[in-house]
């Protein structure tokens, strides 16, 4: 299908991604040789990392320590603030105390919605093992390290951050060069995303909204953290579903370099409903969006990905996380090549095929899932909020939030 152009247009920028927490400033004079001396605010109070490790345990703390090691010197030199969520799933780095307070509430809401929509299975009794390789090459281990969010107030800070990452690992030189002309980055290899709150050349508000960037970027990285690499359609649709539930609209459109219709900020419900009302004999086909390639933009595949994910979330809760887990296991099996002599190598080009995805999907949702989705589209009402979102709104009212 080809959606018609919208009469009212607004420009868009290319966008590449609980418990209560709080912030802390890393002193400018802090010695970079002792990461444990960094003070963060955790569980509502300024806390040393030694205290975090003692309370959380060495295993859970190890991921936090590894992430902070990468950014510690840059944080100190630029006077940024560091916050940890109570469960240590997220490290938030911002420049000011005020922005930390605002953003932490969004982080909390995003985690709550992610848990409602994409709750990972209980793997505590699993005997699954993971092969370790050099950095960036070993098998993905779910929920092993926290996501790092870095909201940058100035373009200069963004450039110095890229420089610090490149200095820490010279192999990232080409990556840093590519990202230097973007308003932000989202990198699965080290589970981090950084973006400029108000990048030069972007109209703030109508085009670029930092809060939306935070929620969408965090959502996609949480998906990767729990389930490893996922097909592009699922990754983007999950990011939009959570962004829309938490914020109320969509402003983060990864890899898109074109105008966005004003109506698109609410999704493509009306367009999809109209399309399937006129398609009397042909139901939705998985092939209409399943082969959407990463790093590209296609309005039709984007709309169908979003629509199908909304259908699953609203009508078949539990299917989306089950599909993501099936994809994780399939990717793990295909990512490595075992030579049978104790040695192995990675297969970087591997991707879970649409056929394998379809088999897993119908096993969970039934063979007639696309016929059901088509019926849903033809009578689609405005999307309902998740239970997590409804609880958040009630809680906000009790706190007197305006």
Question: Total strand count, please?
Answer: 11
Alpha carbon gap, first and last residue? 41 Å
Which shape, going by the Cα principal axes? globular
Mean pLDDT: 86
Q: Which consecutive residue ranges, at least 5 long each, have pLDDT under 50?
A: 2-33, 393-402
Major sheet summary line: 7 strands, mixed
Q: What portion of residues is helical?
A: 40-55%
Count of helical segments?
13
Going across the biggest sheet, name each strand in turn.
3-2-4-5-6-8-7
DSSP strand (E) fraction? 5-15%
Oligomer: single chain
Number of domains: 1
Derived structural class? alpha/beta
* SSE string: EEEHHEEHEHHEEHHEHHHEEHHH
Q: How big is the Rg?
A: 21 Å
Layout of secondary structure:
Layout: E1 9-10, E2 39-42, E3 45-48, H1 49-56, H2 58-78, E4 81-84, E5 90-94, H3 97-117, E6 147-152, H4 155-168, H5 173-179, E7 184-187, E8 192-196, H6 210-227, H7 232-247, E9 260-261, H8 269-278, H9 299-315, H10 319-335, E10 336-338, E11 344-346, H11 354-365, H12 369-378, H13 387-398
Parallel strand pairs: 2-4, 5-6, 6-8
Antiparallel strand pairs: 1-9, 2-3, 4-5, 7-8, 10-11
Helix pairs in contact: 1-2, 2-4, 3-6, 3-7, 3-13, 4-5, 6-7, 7-9, 8-12, 10-11
Overall description:
There is one protein chain. With 402 residues, the protein is an alpha/beta fold. The chain has one domain (9-119, 138-398). Helices cover 46% and strands 10% of the residues. It has helices at residues 49-56, 58-78, 97-117, 155-168, 173-179, 210-227, 232-247, 269-278, 299-315, 319-335, 354-365, 369-378, 387-398, and strands spanning 9-10, 39-42, 45-48, 81-84, 90-94, 147-152, 184-187, 192-196, 260-261, 336-338, 344-346. It has a seven-stranded mixed β-sheet, with helices on both faces. The chain has a two-stranded antiparallel sheet with strand order 1-9. The protein has a two-stranded antiparallel sheet with strand order 10-11. Helix 3 (97-117) links the parallel strand 5 and strand 6. The chain is globular. Mean pLDDT is 86; it is low at 2-33 and 393-402.
């Amino acid at each position: 299908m080809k959606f018609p152009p919208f009469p009212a247009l607004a420009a868009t920028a290319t966008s590449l991604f609980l418990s209560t927490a709080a912030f802390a400033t890393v002193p400018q004079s802090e010695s970079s040789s002792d990461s444990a001396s960094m003070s963060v605010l955790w569980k509502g109070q300024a806390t040393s990392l030694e205290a975090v490790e003692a309370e959380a345990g060495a295993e859970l703390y190890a991921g936090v320590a590894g992430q902070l090691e990468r950014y510690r010197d840059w944080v100190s030199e630029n006077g940024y603030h560091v916050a940890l969520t109570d469960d240590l799933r997220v490290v938030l780095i911002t420049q000011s105390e005020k922005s930390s307070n605002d953003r932490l509430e969004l982080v909390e809401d995003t985690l709550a919605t992610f848990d409602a929509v994409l709750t990972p299975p209980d793997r505590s009794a699993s005997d699954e093992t993971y092969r370790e390789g050099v950095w960036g090459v070993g098998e993905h281990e779910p929920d092993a390290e926290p996501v790092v969010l870095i909201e940058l107030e100035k373009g200069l800070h963004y450039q110095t951050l890229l420089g610090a990452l490149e200095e820490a690992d010279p192999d990232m030189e080409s990556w840093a060069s590519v990202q230097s002309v973007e308003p932000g980055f989202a990198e699965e290899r080290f589970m981090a995303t950084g973006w400029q709150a108000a990048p030069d050349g972007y109209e703030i508000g109508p085009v670029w909204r930092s809060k939306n960037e935070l929620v969408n970027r965090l959502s996609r990285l949480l998906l990767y953290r729990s389930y490893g690499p996922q097909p592009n359609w699922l990754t983007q649709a999950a990011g939009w579903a959570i962004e829309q539930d938490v914020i109320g609209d969509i402003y983060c459109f990864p890899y898109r370099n074109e105008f966005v219709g004003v109506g698109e900020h609410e999704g493509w419900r009306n367009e999809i409903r109209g399309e399937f009302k006129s398609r009397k004999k042909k139901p939705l086909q998985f092939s209409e969006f399943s082969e959407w390639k990463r790093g590209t933009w296609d309005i039709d595949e984007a709309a169908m990905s979003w629509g199908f994910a909304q259908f699953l979330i609203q009508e078949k809760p539990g299917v989306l996380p089950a599909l993501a887990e099936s994809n994780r296991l399939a990717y793990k099996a295909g990512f490595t090549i075992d030579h049978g002599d104790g040695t192995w190598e990675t297969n970087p080009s591997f991707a879970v095929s649409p056929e394998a995805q379809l088999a897993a999907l119908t096993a969970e949702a039934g063979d007639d899932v696309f016929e059901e989705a088509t019926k849903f589209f033809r009578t689609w009402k405005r999307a309902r909020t998740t239970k997590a979102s409804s609880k958040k709104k009630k809680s906000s009212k009790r706190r007197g939030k305006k």
